[in-house]
Design brief:
Layout: H1 3-28, H2 36-42, E1 48-51, E2 57-60, H3 66-80, H4 88-98, H5 103-120, E3 131-135, E4 142-146, H6 147-159, H7 164-171, H8 174-205, H9 213-217, E5 234-235, E6 255-256, E7 275-280, H10 289-294, H11 304-309, H12 320-333, E8 351-356
Antiparallel strand pairs: 1-2, 3-4, 5-6, 7-8
Length: 357
C-alpha cells in the first residue's frame, strides 16, 4: 500500500472515530447516564419476587419513564446502524486499524466486538436474553418472540420509526412487553458506547490517536434551554427590503426598537402577541474572569452565596463559568460596562426586557 493510499485509509478511519466521539459524547450527556450504577443495573433485567400471604407470587420490575428511555433510544439509534458514519461497529473497526500493532489493545477490540454482537445484535434467540410466549385460549394460536425482537419492535415500530413489519410482529405482545425488552438494550448500548468513548479518550491521551481537539470539546448537548443575548432589535413593515448579510448596514425604513415603541403592533401571522414587555427587579452581577478566579476558595470551589450574587443556581451546573465569561465578554463588546446589582439607594431600579412568545 502506497503512502497516498495509506493516508486515505487513515483519514477515513479518523473520520469514523471522530463522528463516533461526537455522538457518544451526546449519549454520555443523557440523564440516564448521570447515575452510572443505575444505568448498569438496567442492563441486567433485575426483578423483585414478592410472595403474598395467599401464596401468590408477584414478579416486579421498575423502569424509568418511557419518555426518558425514548430520548435515549433516539440518541443511540445512529450508533446501532451499521450504515451511519458514527456507528459503533465502524468506530470499533477504525480503532482496530490504529491499534493493529498493539497486541493488548487489539485483544480488547476483539473482545468488545464479540460482546457487542451478543448484547446488541444477537444471532440466535438463545443469546437474546429471554423469550416471551403467549397463547390464545379461544383460537389455540401460539406466538413467541425473543427479547431482542421485542426491543427492535419498540425502537423501530413505536419510537424512531413506524416500521409496519416490526409493529405487526410485536403487536400481539403489547406495548409494555416491547418496552420491557428495549430497556436493557438501550441501557447496555449506552454503557458500551460510553466505555468505548473513554477507551478512545485514553488512547488519544497516550498519543496513539490524534483526534481533533474540537471533537472532544465542542458542545454536544444543551445544558440550558433559555435563550438570552444582549443586542439591539430593529423592525420594519412587512415587505420592507431585508438585509443582504449580517455585516451590511440595514436598508432604510428599519427602526430601532426602544422603550417608547408600541409593542401592541407586533403580532404573529395567526394574531398572537409576538413581543411582551417585562420588568426585572435587578440583573445579576457579571464578574470578570479575573474576579471569578479570585473568588475561588482554597478548596477549589465557590461559595453558595457568591454564586447567588452572580445568578448561578446551587449546585452550580456544568459550564457555569464559561457561560458567565461569555456574557461578560458580550457586554464588553456591546460597549456597555458589565451590569451589577443595584445599590441600596437605587432599590427601585428596573431593567426592561422583551420576551418573544
Amino acid at each position: 500500500m502506497g503512502s497516498g493510499e495509506r493516508g486515505t485509509v487513515e483519514a477515513g478511519h479518523q473520520a469514523r472515530l471522530e463522528a463516533f466521539v461526537l455522538r457518544a459524547r451526546r449519549v454520555e450527556e443523557h440523564s440516564l447516564a448521570a447515575d452510572w450504577d443505575a444505568l448498569v443495573a438496567l442492563t441486567t433485567m433485575q426483578m423483585s419476587v414478592i410472595q403474598l400471604d395467599t401464596g401468590e407470587m408477584r414478579i416486579r420490575q421498575e423502569f424509568p419513564a418511557e419518555e426518558v428511555v425514548e430520548s435515549a433510544a433516539a440518541r443511540i439509534r445512529p450508533i446501532l446502524l451499521k450504515g451511519d458514519a458514527c456507528s459503533y461497529q465502524k468506530a470499533l473497526g477504525a480503532l482496530g486499524y490504529f491499534c493493529r500493532e498493539l497486541p493488548l489493545d487489539t485483544q480488547w477490540v476483539k473482545a468488545t466486538r464479540d460482546e457487542w454482537r451478543v448484547r446488541v445484535a444477537p444471532s440466535t434467540p438463545e443469546e437474546a436474553g429471554y423469550w416471551v410466549m403467549i397463547s390464545d385460549t379461544v383460537t389455540g394460536e401460539n406466538q413467541g418472540l425473543d427479547r431482542h425482537k421485542l426491543a427492535m419492535a419498540w425502537i423501530y415500530g413505536d419510537v424512531v420509526h413506524h416500521d409496519v413489519a416490526r409493529r405487526q410482529e410485536g403487536d400481539a405482545f403489547g406495548l409494555f412487553e416491547r418496552f420491557r425488552g428495549a430497556v436493557p438494550l438501550v441501557a447496555w448500548t449506552m454503557v458500551g458506547t460510553i466505555e468505548l468513548l473513554n477507551y478512545i479518550r485514553a488512547l488519544h491521551g497516550d498519543g496513539v490517536l490524534q483526534l481533533r481537539q474540537e471533537v472532544l470539546d465542542e458542545p454536544v448537548a444543551l445544558e440550558s434551554t433559555t435563550w438570552e443575548h444582549s443586542g439591539e432589535l430593529f423592525f420594519a413593515p412587512v415587505g420592507t427590503e431585508a438585509p443582504t448579510a449580517a455585516s451590511t448596514p440595514l436598508p432604510k425604513d428599519w427602526v430601532r426598537l426602544g422603550r417608547t415603541t408600541d409593542l401592541s403592533r407586533f403580532h404573529t401571522e395567526f394574531g398572537g402577541q409576538l413581543l411582551h414587555a417585562a420588568r426585572s427587579p435587578h440583573i445579576p452581577e457579571l464578574p470578570s474572569p479575573e474576579e471569578i478566579e479570585a473568588a475561588c476558595t482554597p478548596a477549589g470551589g465557590w461559595k453558595r452565596d457568591q454564586l447567588a450574587k452572580w445568578g448561578v443556581p446551587w449546585p452550580p451546573p456544568k459550564g457555569w463559568k464559561d457561560e458567565l465569561i461569555e456574557r461578560w465578554e458580550v457586554a464588553r463588546r456591546d460597549g456597555a460596562p458589565p451590569p451589577s446589582l443595584p445599590s441600596p439607594a437605587s432599590a427601585d431600579f428596573t431593567q426592561e426586557t422583551f420576551d418573544f412568545g
